[in-house]
Amino acid sequence: MPTILSVNNYFYRRGGAEVVFQEQNALLTSIGWQVIPFAMTHTKNDPSDFSSGFVDELEFGENYGFMKKLFLASKTIYSFEARKKIRKIIHTYKPQIAHLHNVYHHISPSILSELKQQHVPIVMTLHDLKIACPAYKMLTHDGVCERCKSGNLLPIIKNKCIKNSLALSSLIFLESSVHRMLGLYQQVDRFIVPSHFYLEKLVEWGWPREKLTYIPNCIDASQFQLSSTAGNSFVYFGRLSEEKGILTLLKAAAKASVRVDIIGEGELSAQARQLADTLGVDACFHGYQRGESLYTIIQSARAVVLPSEWYENAPISILEAYALGKPVIGANIGGIPEMIKEGVTGALFPSADSEALASILKDFSLLSQDKLTEMGYCARQWVDKSFSTQNYKESLLKLYTELGVDDAETK
Predict the structure, then answer these.
(1) What is the band of 141 on the pLDDT scale with cuts at 50, 70, 90?
(2) Exposure of 289 by Cβ count < 10 A (0-12 exposed, 13-18 middle, 19+ buried)?
(3) Do 156 and 162 form a contact (C-beta atoms < 8 A)?
(4) Any idea what the Cα angle at residue 193 is, between residues 160 and 51, rounded to 5°?
(5) Is residue 308 part of a domain?
(6) How many domains are contained in the chain?
(7) Which domain holds residue 273?
(8) How many CA atoms lie within 13 A of 115 on its CB side?
């Protein structure tokens, strides 16, 4: 039985990275692997037989005292606790390979040195651009940003890239400087990149192409009921934050006189509701939804809208929409264009252009039931063919074999 050490900050479905992390764990378990999770202790974590070995909780939103904050700041840069605990896990379970997802700040990349010292091959799935951009989004106050491309990290402080905070931005500047000086991420044997856009962007920023492997995200479409009807509204689901383009969507909906269903919460929740009221948008804010309640709303829509204004990677939300038989209208930015076939599974518009989006919303509001059903069917077929769990499994096990896991592909 092959044994894998699977690492992520959180052990509950907090976001897209956690979904991929947990689905991958379930997939490997189903084919006979022993999966040893390593994460941060958290009140929302799912139950785990291995939780006693997790690192202590570290949440930046808590009201800690000065000395506690100073101690936690040092842990975000290099966690000796995480390195010590991962060493014990390696000695106890002797994993053939380690697969990391998001480890920044909470676990920290200190574990990479221990894994390398213990001769455990390291794979890391990149859910964002953190290994290139310390702020991980390549986004700042004036939009998409690549100021640190030359290697000079001072723009992080100058532009207060982290939550517009000088203190937090300075901490991340220090963190990234230390990680680069120690060459921590260079110790990863192979990075999995879910979008061609991210792969090429990382090569532009100096990462060796041979260390990057394209494996797209997957979804088990058989678990989703294909919708055969098209309603009158357009659905957005995800975080209500600046980079997601939610305000652009509301402006476009007002211009196009169409109904929108907004699913999710975030720092722009109040502002989005106020803007909808001001513009007279026919909008329903559903708050956070998941599972059947989420999918029921999507199934009753004409299309899903993804109006992002930052370099998206490979949104799971597109795959979920397709699995439900819904076309996607997406911003032409990041990895989104490679996941939408224009006129076949959806449509693209220039990011942040509310006029262009309004035009597409109007066009889609006039499409016939048959045309929308056809687009949804094509989207579902594409998911089944190119983004299936079977394809993902085969690509993943092939990579593990290349890194020396002898019986990775025998299960």
Answers:
(1) confident
(2) middle
(3) yes
(4) 80
(5) yes
(6) 2
(7) 221-386
(8) 29
